[in-house]
Amino acid sequence: xxxxxxxxxxxxxxxxxxxxxxxxxxxxxxxxxxxxxxxxxxxxxxxxxxxxxxxxxxxxxxxxxxxxxxxxxxxxxxxxxxxxxxxxxxxxxxxxxxxxxxxxxxxxxxxxxxxxxxxxxxxxxxxxxxxxxxxxxxxxxxxxxxxxxxxxxxxxxxxxxxxxxxxxxxxxxxxxxxxxxxxxxxxxxxxxxx
Length: 194
Hints:
Largest sheet: 2 strands, antiparallel
Radius of gyration: 17 Å
Number of helices: 9
Structural class: mainly alpha
Helix content: 40-55%
Mean pLDDT: 94
Low-confidence stretches: none
Order of helices and strands: HHHHHEEHHHH
Strand order of the largest sheet: 1-2
Shape: globular
Distance between the termini: 26 Å
Strand content: 5-15%
């Protein structure tokens, strides 16, 4: 099964609220979601990287939420639909933002060569998490906790005031869980430093 097929299967099995079909149609037929990278130079910087990253975050989040400690000690119970929505859709803000380009890289022989890369050009500079929330809400209604989770999925690694991030995590534990899943996918599964 391809990454795109897995994404669509998980989405269809779990996201059933009004507007889900229209959102999936947008992703499949009116955007570059399934072909664009997840970043310009780091994790998922290749065609289809965004879809693959979204699936990685989904699997990390589902694993995190299934932990006994998370369920029993923290009391965090999240529906399968909410988990799928926040993980699969958290980075919709990246749709339409990457253009193929080149950059110069010095090889081991000391010679410079051009390598393919991506350049980031945001046609709608509305922020990161908030832009994803905005796009999703154009198709289906998010719960408040889902909206906060997506909005603050960058956690303390974003450009936010630390107090604001901390308050969002305290008020909406799904925001913390999604942030952990996003970091786990980015830094461990996708090995951003390679």
